[in-house]
Protein backbone atom coordinates (compact mmCIF):
# COMPACT_ATOMS: atom_id res chain seq x y z
CA UNK A 1 0.00 0.00 0.00
CA UNK A 2 1.29 3.41 -0.94
CA UNK A 3 -0.52 6.61 -0.05
CA UNK A 4 -0.56 9.04 -2.97
CA UNK A 5 0.17 12.74 -2.89
CA UNK A 6 -3.57 13.35 -2.93
CA UNK A 7 -4.00 11.30 0.25
CA UNK A 8 -1.12 13.02 2.02
CA UNK A 9 -2.39 16.46 0.99
CA UNK A 10 -5.94 15.61 2.08
CA UNK A 11 -4.62 14.90 5.57
CA UNK A 12 -2.69 18.17 5.54
CA UNK A 13 -5.82 20.08 4.46
CA UNK A 14 -7.90 18.51 7.22
CA UNK A 15 -5.21 19.25 9.82
CA UNK A 16 -4.95 22.82 8.58
CA UNK A 17 -8.72 23.31 8.77
CA UNK A 18 -8.79 21.91 12.30
CA UNK A 19 -5.70 23.80 13.45
CA UNK A 20 -7.05 27.15 12.22
CA UNK A 21 -10.70 26.56 13.15
CA UNK A 22 -12.36 29.69 14.48
CA UNK A 23 -15.84 28.75 13.30
CA UNK A 24 -15.33 30.80 10.14
CA UNK A 25 -14.77 29.48 6.64
CA UNK A 26 -11.12 29.31 5.56
CA UNK A 27 -10.14 30.36 2.04
CA UNK A 28 -8.19 27.90 -0.10
CA UNK A 29 -5.63 30.61 -0.85
CA UNK A 30 -4.81 30.74 2.87
CA UNK A 31 -4.42 26.96 3.08
CA UNK A 32 -2.37 27.06 -0.12
CA UNK A 33 -0.01 29.66 1.33
CA UNK A 34 0.49 27.74 4.57
CA UNK A 35 0.81 24.29 3.02
CA UNK A 36 2.60 25.06 -0.25
CA UNK A 37 -0.06 23.28 -2.30
CA UNK A 38 -1.57 24.92 -5.39
CA UNK A 39 -5.12 26.21 -5.11
CA UNK A 40 -6.05 24.17 -8.19
CA UNK A 41 -4.96 20.91 -6.53
CA UNK A 42 -6.62 21.91 -3.27
CA UNK A 43 -9.90 22.43 -5.16
CA UNK A 44 -9.81 18.80 -6.31
CA UNK A 45 -9.08 17.53 -2.82
CA UNK A 46 -11.69 19.69 -1.09
CA UNK A 47 -14.29 18.65 -3.67
CA UNK A 48 -13.71 14.99 -2.76
CA UNK A 49 -13.80 15.76 0.95
CA UNK A 50 -16.97 17.82 0.51
CA UNK A 51 -18.81 15.15 -1.48
CA UNK A 52 -18.05 12.72 1.33
CA UNK A 53 -19.41 15.18 3.91
CA UNK A 54 -16.09 15.72 5.65
CA UNK A 55 -15.93 19.45 4.95
CA UNK A 56 -18.47 22.19 4.40
CA UNK A 57 -17.95 24.80 1.74
CA UNK A 58 -19.42 28.21 1.06
CA UNK A 59 -18.93 30.39 -2.00
CA UNK A 60 -18.57 34.13 -2.02
CA UNK A 61 -16.34 36.78 -0.52
CA UNK A 62 -16.63 35.31 2.98
CA UNK A 63 -16.62 31.78 1.67
CA UNK A 64 -14.17 28.99 2.05
CA UNK A 65 -14.10 25.64 3.79
CA UNK A 66 -14.38 24.27 7.28
CA UNK A 67 -14.72 20.93 9.00
CA UNK A 68 -18.19 19.40 9.09
CA UNK A 69 -17.52 17.77 12.48
CA UNK A 70 -15.20 18.04 15.45
CA UNK A 71 -11.61 16.83 14.82
CA UNK A 72 -12.01 13.95 17.27
CA UNK A 73 -14.88 12.60 15.16
CA UNK A 74 -12.65 11.90 12.14
CA UNK A 75 -10.26 9.02 11.76
CA UNK A 76 -7.21 9.14 9.55
CA UNK A 77 -8.59 6.02 7.88
CA UNK A 78 -11.83 7.75 6.95
CA UNK A 79 -9.97 10.67 5.42
CA UNK A 80 -7.54 8.48 3.48
CA UNK A 81 -10.26 6.15 2.20
CA UNK A 82 -12.24 9.16 1.00
CA UNK A 83 -9.52 10.22 -1.40
CA UNK A 84 -7.59 6.97 -1.91
CA UNK A 85 -10.32 4.35 -1.91
CA UNK A 86 -9.51 1.02 -0.31
CA UNK A 87 -6.28 0.72 1.64
CA UNK A 88 -6.15 -3.04 1.02
CA UNK A 89 -2.65 -4.34 0.24
CA UNK A 90 -3.93 -6.67 -2.51
CA UNK A 91 -6.77 -6.35 -4.98
CA UNK A 92 -8.73 -9.37 -3.77
CA UNK A 93 -9.34 -7.69 -0.39
CA UNK A 94 -10.67 -4.40 -1.78
CA UNK A 95 -14.36 -5.29 -1.79
CA UNK A 96 -16.81 -6.67 0.73
CA UNK A 97 -16.49 -10.13 -0.77
CA UNK A 98 -13.35 -11.80 -2.06
CA UNK A 99 -14.23 -12.92 -5.58
CA UNK A 100 -10.83 -14.36 -6.38
CA UNK A 101 -11.23 -17.89 -7.79
CA UNK A 102 -8.04 -18.91 -5.96
CA UNK A 103 -9.08 -17.54 -2.54
CA UNK A 104 -10.04 -20.89 -1.04
CA UNK A 105 -6.66 -22.43 -1.73
CA UNK A 106 -4.53 -19.30 -1.49
CA UNK A 107 -1.66 -19.87 0.93
CA UNK A 108 -0.90 -16.15 1.24
CA UNK A 109 -4.47 -14.89 1.79
CA UNK A 110 -4.25 -15.11 5.58
CA UNK A 111 -1.05 -13.06 5.50
CA UNK A 112 -2.65 -10.35 3.32
CA UNK A 113 -5.75 -10.27 5.53
CA UNK A 114 -3.55 -9.82 8.59
CA UNK A 115 -1.66 -6.96 6.97
CA UNK A 116 -4.95 -5.37 5.92
CA UNK A 117 -6.24 -5.64 9.50
CA UNK A 118 -3.08 -4.07 10.95
CA UNK A 119 -3.14 -1.13 8.52
CA UNK A 120 -6.86 -0.46 8.95
CA UNK A 121 -6.72 -0.76 12.74
CA UNK A 122 -3.83 1.69 12.85
CA UNK A 123 -5.38 4.37 10.62
CA UNK A 124 -8.79 3.94 12.24
CA UNK A 125 -7.42 4.40 15.76
CA UNK A 126 -5.66 7.66 14.92
CA UNK A 127 -7.95 10.69 14.94
CA UNK A 128 -7.63 14.05 13.24
CA UNK A 129 -7.49 15.54 16.74
CA UNK A 130 -4.44 13.37 17.48
CA UNK A 131 -2.66 14.88 14.47
CA UNK A 132 -3.72 18.41 15.41
CA UNK A 133 -2.49 17.91 18.96
CA UNK A 134 0.87 16.69 17.65
CA UNK A 135 1.03 19.71 15.34
CA UNK A 136 0.37 22.06 18.26
CA UNK A 137 3.09 20.37 20.32
CA UNK A 138 5.58 20.78 17.49
CA UNK A 139 4.45 24.25 16.37
CA UNK A 140 6.58 25.94 19.00
CA UNK A 141 9.52 24.92 16.85
CA UNK A 142 8.21 25.20 13.30
CA UNK A 143 4.68 25.07 11.89
CA UNK A 144 4.79 22.82 8.91
CA UNK A 145 2.48 19.92 8.22
Spell out the key features of this protein.
145 residues; 6 helices; 50% helix; mainly alpha; 2 strands; two-stranded antiparallel sheet
Order of helices and strands: HHHEEHHH
Q: Shape, please?
A: elongated
* Beta-strand content: 5-15%
How many separate helices?
Answer: 6
* Poorly predicted segments: none
The helix content is 40-55%
Instruction: Quote the distance from N terminus to C terminus.
Output: 22 Å
Order of strands, widest sheet: 1-2
**Annotation, overall tally of beta strands:** 2
Radius of gyration: 18 Å
- From the helix content, strand content and strand pairing, which structural class follows? mainly alpha
Mean pLDDT across every amino acid position = 92
Main beta sheet: 2 strands, antiparallel
Task: Provide structural commentary.
The protein is mostly helical and 145 residues long. It has six helices and two strands, in the order αααββααα. Helix 1 crosses helix 4 and helix 1 crosses helix 6 (128-138). The model has no long low-confidence stretch (mean pLDDT 92).
